[in-house]
Specification:
Layout lengths: L2 H11 L7 E4 L5 E4 L2 E3 L4 H12 L5 E2 H9 L7 H20 L3 E4 L2 E4 L5 H17 L3 H12 L14 H27 L3 H14 L4 H13 L3 H19 L5 H11 L9
Antiparallel strand pairs: 1-2, 2-3, 4-6, 5-6
Helix pairs in contact: 1-5, 2-4, 3-4, 5-6, 5-7, 6-7, 7-9, 8-9, 9-10, 9-11, 10-11
Length: 269
């Protein structure tokens, strides 16, 4: 990709076009209009809004909502109840922030210019493009901006349904992938001293995530702390063997042996 095109992509990903109304789902569901929070006190209205935002710009059928909210045995009044939820939510959005829920064939659609999950994914894609183009500094900046959008577990104040749970799991996996990418890029840039403290926290929060353990081992080794790097492996192996009855992956074992052998090729290049 040419430099000008890449710069434009980064600008778009960063949300250069600011809007007054922001929808936020990377944490508790919130709406902010010109920096003023808009309260949605009814939990089912939050659920309907969450479903529309997870499908922003795309129609969501009433049948989809009925199935997601009540499963295979919905009450006879389910469709009417969904219409009522949308009617009340539509009135709230129309009055408070002039955002309109459209009625489409057999369902509803919400158009919104600023949804944090959409911005997060755009920033993540732009960061991957920057990394592929040999621009790690831009990649780190974009990844950090993307991760800063997170305020806690996605949709933490919204009732859980099968589709909400599936969407939140997907978003959390993307967040962890973005974190791993930021750590990898930091290692590439020789920032091992900077990322080591955060990696220590990550291996505690995610004791089965081998990618974070490998990154911590490498960052400690490059910080001239090989004994601590080996200790990370020993602790992970003990946990895996005792709790799950499995050994670390071959790639992690190989990294352990290379650190043990003081492989100079692991040093910063």
């Amino acid at each position: 990709m040419g430099g000008d095109a890449f710069a434009i992509d980064c600008e778009i990903a960063s949300g250069a076009k600011e809007t007054s109304v922001r929808f936020m789902i990377l944490g508790p569901l919130e709406i902010v209009d010109q920096n003023i929070p808009i309260k949605i006190t009814a939990s089912m209205q939050r659920l309907v809004l969450a479903v529309l935002l997870l499908n922003v710009g795309r129609p969501v059928s009433v049948e989809q909502m009925v199935t997601d909210f009540w499963g295979d045995r919905p009450p006879a009044s389910a469709r009417k109840t969904v219409h009522g939820y949308v009617w009340r939510l539509r009135g709230l959005l129309d009055r408070s922030c002039h955002q309109h829920i459209e009625t489409v064939d057999n369902g509803y659609r919400l158009q919104a210019d600023d949804v944090d999950s959409v911005r997060f994914e755009r920033l993540y894609r732009a960061a991957r493009q920057a990394s592929a183009a040999g621009d790690p500094a831009s990649a780190v900046r974009l990844l950090s901006e993307a991760l800063d959008l997170w305020r806690g577990p996605a949709l933490s104040n919204v009732p859980t349904t099968p589709q909400i749970a599936l969407s939140c799991t997907r978003l959390e996996e993307l967040r962890l992938s973005a974190l791993a990418a930021r750590f990898d890029t930091g290692l590439e840039m020789g920032q091992h001293h900077v990322i080591t403290p955060e990696l220590r926290v990550m291996v505690i929060e995610y004791p089965l995530n081998e990618a974070f353990h490998a990154q911590l081992m490498l960052s400690l080794y490059r910080s001239h702390r090989p004994a601590e790097a080996l200790d990370v492996f020993y602790k992970l192996r003990s946990y895996l063997v005792n709790e799950l009855g499995v050994e670390p992956s071959p790639s992690l074992q190989e990294l352990f042996l290379r650190i043990l052998a003081n492989d100079c090729q692991l040093a910063v290049t």
